[in-house]
């Protein structure tokens, strides 16, 4: 089969690989649609260390090509969505309620980290009964693929923010995850949603998904503007969806005492992330910092499919460019350099 790989740090390309083997509890998926994520580009540039000829990608849908003898819920030909995070559900971490951390920190993140990813004609799913879900007949692949990561992660950011009904939330970063955090905050009942962003296309999508106020950080001081929107009280919740030390610190500064800072950004550079002493109340302002890795598992995917099936949200608005798999290198470079106002490139097989 053909696969798009990270040959080494800062170098990608295509190569031929064998179709993955299928264990007794596993499945092999024939890929139909995939997305490229900014976190893939962080990996390419060495954020998690050197990788050699590792297939990239963790956002894909397809049809079941082969199943193991002990897989009960799926059959060849089923259309399925596979989460970006595929935990080992028998791990101690899963039993403690943290499946994404199975067997090691971030251990549920396997694709394009510890095993070949899904930017290939076929890809492997461990613990198939627990890690993939059927796509409803009235949901198109190009919408379902967003559930693998962008919807799940963005919504998780809103869930972890503990937004009170009618409360104020500030979201730092209007990339795909930040935009899905806007949509998630709206669905969870936020009274006021403030999006910090500067790119016009992302600002427009932010408004579409539910942002009430926009703070353009290139034109105004983000902290001062957010405090102004809230009568100088601060927000009940903030969501850091960029992975920047500056926005992380700002999220703490604008959150009122007793509020929650939810981090879903991928902090790929540096040895530490700053916590401003004053904004943190010198450690005593009762501000909670939550973190999370994109939720995995069949139940999560089935719930997201229900949201799509009942048209609660249209994630395909994020798709700005379309490529055939043969042009995945062009799509990857575009996502890496953020050219042509790209938000999300869709790959078809």
What does this structure look like?
With 349 residues, this protein is an alpha/beta fold. Helices cover 26% and strands 25% of the residues. It has 11 helices and 16 strands. It has helices at 38-44, 92-95, 128-131, 141-144, 150-160, 176-187, 200-209, 222-229, 245-254, 298-309, 328-337, and strands spanning 2-8, 11-16, 27-35, 54-55, 59-67, 79-82, 122-125, 132-134, 168-172, 192-196, 213-215, 235-240, 255-263, 288-291, 319-324, 344-348. The strands form 3 sheets. Strands 3, 5, 6, 7, 8, 15 and 16 form a 7-stranded mixed sheet that branches. Strands 11-10-9-12-13-14 form a 6-stranded parallel sheet, with helices on both faces. Helix 6 links the parallel strand 9 and strand 10 (192-196). Helix 5 crosses helix 6 (176-187) and helix 8 runs parallel beside helix 9 (245-254). It starts with a strand and ends with a strand.
